[in-house]
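@channel anyone free to eyeball this complex?
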Amino acid sequence: MIKIENLHVEVDGNKILNGINLEVKAGETHAIMGPNGSGKSTLAQVLAGHEDYDVTEGNVEYLGKDLLDMDVDERACEGIFLAFQYPVELPGVNNTYFLKSALNAQRKYHGESEIDAMEFMELIGDKIKLLNLKESLLKRPVNDGFSGGEKKRNEIFQMAVLEPKLALLDETDSGLDIDALRVVAGGVNAMRSNENATIVVTHYQRLLNYIVPDFVHVLVDGRIINSGDKNLALELEEKGYDKIIEEAAG
Amino acid sequence: MESFVKAFRNTLKSPEDGIESLRTEAFEEFSKTGVPNSRHEYWKFSDPSVILNLDLKLNESLDNIDEDYDLILCNGKISKNKTKGRTGSISEGIKKGDISERVLEVNGNPFINLNSAFAINGCYINLERNSTNNLKILNLITNNEEIEQAVYPKLVIVAEENSNTTILEEFRISGKGTNFVNSAMNIFMAQGANLEHIILDDYADDTYHIANIGVEQKKDSNYVSHNFSIGKKFARRDFNIKLTETGANCDLNGIYFASNKEHIDHHTTIEHMQNNCTSNEHYKGILDGKAIAVFNGRIHVHPDAQKTDAIQSNQNLLLSDDAIIHTKPELEIYADDVKCTHGATVGQLDEKAMFYLKTRGLNQNDAKRLLMRAYVGEIIQKISDDNIRKQMMEIVVDKLPKGTND
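replying in thread with the prediction:
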């Protein structure tokens, strides 16, 4: 689905990613783990198309296309979804109106007609139950005055409505209590299929107890220094990042 | 000046209307002061003296337009009037004693004097005690001959005790040519009267619009205006609100758009003259291209106006690097037990919000419009009538500036 080759990224002249190689196939879930400042979030932001990051080298192929050549909205319409670490508050933008606009923008991109009002209400009714969100949140401005947990659930709710091919979850577990974590993971798991893929960016292993990855990669100083299966995450949790970094260097 | 003098003399040739002397006084005062220019403090950023270069003819033509309005003023003259109760032209109102001669008295503002001088037409409406009214008013300016013309609409509203009224007032221009529209409105609100006034200026033609709205409020009266100035070449609207008795409240809400080289100016003055009055002002602008906007919000708290509560806020969104906003709060407070707050902001569209929207599939233009819609929505949602609110939302969103910096 996505093939990242020798990806180098800078922000304001500072090197953040120094040659990332990663391939994710449909049906797979990959976890990117790493200490703070290792470049995990940068990777997610770059794939989503954030303009503050300069790609200085390498390429990314997504569904046979050159991803780096695509605008942010084009990537979204082609099925890339970024669940934000810090979801943005949009005062005055009604949550339902926002979701409908997003969904219709994507439908329009694919040459489909706008969604029928009834059909839309049914769709969001189904998905909101999945994320255990209060219906009243639909009438409120996007993320405005939401609790930390509500914001994260709202991200996954949007993802459930937009049904992306490649989901990028950026520190989705941060700020979640254990119950909310279960709900969010449940939502993500319910969407997993052979058609789509997920990249989970996380600092802690605990999310991976609920969203079980097929592959785990350890990112340090902008490079993947170690890859393995879900057991690598457990090893990391036990030994700590320093030990793994040492072993990789040795 | 010559074109004004000539046009004024012509008005004296018409059959007598009983207010010639008042009109003449107003015109003499205007002749003394002339048209202000940027050397005057209150006209520093908006120089109206450009109109002196125009060969202005008074448009007295009257087209019979029958649209779904209760009152249509065509070039300032009554073209249709289906309002209930006492109503008629300004001169009739003064003759009958329904309105005071004060509506024509000499004023410190030259444009009000100029408007009064040409108040041969105009209209007054008396809103009866305890009545409930919904009025749709159209100020139609026609310019069939495509000339340089002047129009002086004058409207007087007398809201009697405990009357409850919604007025939707639109300014519309049909035909090409250059228009100088100098409108004036006087609103008198008796005790307990309630008036919600929605104003829509919607023309991007070659128009100079100078508008003055004066409101005098008695005890416990409530005046709420929603002012939508969404596009014209040169425009200035002044509100002069006098809260003359205890318990009066006014809300001034507004949205203004300006693009290209348009110029838009709002000067508001709220006089808190007695105790326990409240005022709440919220204006938001979106500026694009090389547009210039001015917002000057004056709050004057008189010595007797203890327990005043006045709030003022002016926010501006700049879509281009070349747009300019001059924003200035002006507080004069002569009482000690008062609460006055004011704030002004100038900013751009939030980059983080734009990125967020784009990651959901909205393109640059749609994302921008969604954010601007939310921005203006904050003001529009203050309209209490559901239908008017929806109608204004549609019209305003349709007129959102495009943003020239992409």
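from a first look: Chain A has one domain: 2-249.
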